[in-house]
Design goal:
CATH architecture of the largest domain: 3-Layer(aba) Sandwich
Strand order of the largest sheet: 3-2-1-4-5-7-6
CATH superfamily of the largest domain: Vaccinia Virus protein VP39
Largest sheet: 7 strands, mixed
Number of domains: 2
Helix content: 40-55%
Bound molecules: S-adenosylmethionine
Structural class: alpha/beta
Strand content: 5-15%
Number of strands: 7
Distance between the termini: 43 Å
Number of helices: 19
CATH class of the largest domain: Alpha Beta
Oligomer: single chain
CATH topology of the largest domain: Rossmann fold
Shape: globular
Radius of gyration: 22 Å
Length: 402
């Protein structure tokens, strides 16, 4: 539903040459928005071939005409009014009143224009309103965010940290918050994989890939790898993508997919031998409830593989948010951890720590360079008072159920 609304808005708002790019990807259809919406809820070969072309075109547009491209959380962009209107509809009457007071007008059009032009107003908005979205709103917005990239972000971390262990694994593995299904697909050669995600568009993508591989179609996968590599180009993980042939030399087994939230897992107790959960906990409101579920569904001796952003990552996120004046928290990260808080949370639910490895490093100089650009002066001052040599923005961790 939200995708239909979004495509209606987007195709009616972009410049004619941009509309024509998207029309050419789907020639001869009478209702472009509903045809796009239905393509994103399909999981067959044709849909995945279409998605590859869609993401290629969208990524080219991001470079050539960023103000016309599909981008979330960015002002001076054609999608910005859509997100302001979305928030306007879901916010409480008292928040709406606060916004009217702050913007000095009750016309949504004027409020949108002021938000677009005024970084201080956007920063106020994110702190007061954009950071108190419900879990359901986050899930809904995620359907649109999934249009930005084919990748769901954790592919490099999976290859570097989990892949070596997974090749030795047998039994049942849960891919919790499987995203676009890269890890699911690779793991399904070694174990019976069960994959769950709250985002329907990403889940369909994962199902399509899995169906193709099960049917022996391997020509698309190299293209998927190329696209993911291109999209993740800037991410700081020292890891080369193996070739498609190396990654998928075995036969992929049937994967069981479920659309749902990982804080209420629909599986029996003591069911899984391992859980892969990369780049997910920070997007949720209740990591504690999720870890409790992991403890329930995992067999004793079973392991959980996690990646999550650190508290340094939180500072970096706040710096970026304040420089850009994002409407929502950057990357919709709600939680950040340090090694101790992550280990303590798992310990409370009966896990021991096997490994916690920091990665994605930044130097003090790089950190201060961005902090100095932030209008949030106190953040830079605080950093200056507590200097450090090098910081890791993310953690990889392995926990074992006792
Ligand atoms: C940054 S992506 C990471 C996806 C994937 N694990 C990877 O490594 O690429 C985060 C994913 O978590 C999903 N997600 C967030 N909260 C969730 C929840 N409570 N239940 C299920 N999925 C959730 C999102 O829909 C999204 O696909």
């Amino acid at each position: 539903m939200i995708l239909r609304e979004f495509f209606d808005y987007y195709f009616n708002s972009v410049e004619p040459d941009v509309l024509s790019i998207y029309q050419q990807l789907m020639p001869g259809v009478s209702d472009l928005s509903s045809s796009y919406e239905s393509m994103f809820s399909r999981n067959d070969d044709e849909a995945i071939a279409f998605l590859l072309k869609f993401h290629q075109a969208t990524s080219e547009l991001r470079n050539s005409k960023p103000h016309q491209a599909i981008l979330f959380n960015v002002h001076n962009n054609v999608c910005f009014p859509f997100f302001v209107e979305y928030l306007w509809k879901v916010m409480s009457p008292s928040d709406r009143e606060k916004l009217v007071q702050q913007a000095g007008t009750d016309s949504l059009e004027d409020i949108t224009a002021r938000l677009n032009d005024d970084v201080e107003l956007r920063n106020w908005f994110r702190r007061e309103i954009g950071s108190v979205l419900s879990q359901q709103d986050l899930f809904t917005l995620n359907e649109i965010i999934a249009l930005q990239n084919f990748s769901s972000g954790g592919e490099y971390s999976f290859l570097k940290y989990v892949y070596p262990d997974i090749q030795k694994l047998e039994g049942k593995v849960l891919d919790a918050g499987c995203g676009a299904g890269f890890a699911t697909l690779v793991m399904s050669q070694y174990a019976s994989v069960f994959s769950i995600d709250a985002c329907k568009a990403r889940l369909e993508r994962a199902m399509a890939l899995s169906n193709m591989m099960k049917n022996g179609e391997k020509t698309i996968f190299p293209k998927v790898i190329d696209l993911i590599e291109e999209e993740l180009g800037g991410i700081q993980v020292e890891c080369e993508f193996p070739s498609a042939d190396d990654l998928l030399s075995g036969t992929c087994k049937e994967v069981t997919f479920v659309e749902g939230s990982i804080d209420a897992l629909p599986y029996p107790d003591n069911y899984f031998d391992a859980i892969n959960c990369l780049d997910v906990l920070e997007h949720t409101y209740s990591p504690e409830a999720i870890v409790e579920q992991f403890a329930r569904v995992l067999k004793p001796g079973g392991r959980v593989f996690i990646t999550a952003p650190t508290r340094y990552g939180e500072v970096e996120q706040h710096i970026h948010e304040s420089i850009e004046g994002t409407l929502f928290p950057a990357m919709l990260h709600m939680h950040h951890f340090d090694p101790q808080s992550l280990a303590d949370m798992f310990k409370r639910h009966g896990f021991t720590t096997v490994e916690i490895t920091p990665f994605d490093f930044m130097s003090w100089e790089e950190f201060m360079e961005i902090a100095d650009r932030s209008p949030a002066r106190e953040l830079a001052e605080e950093l200056r008072a507590h200097p450090f040599d090098q910081v890791a923005l993310q953690l990889f961790a392995v926990f074992e159920k006792v």
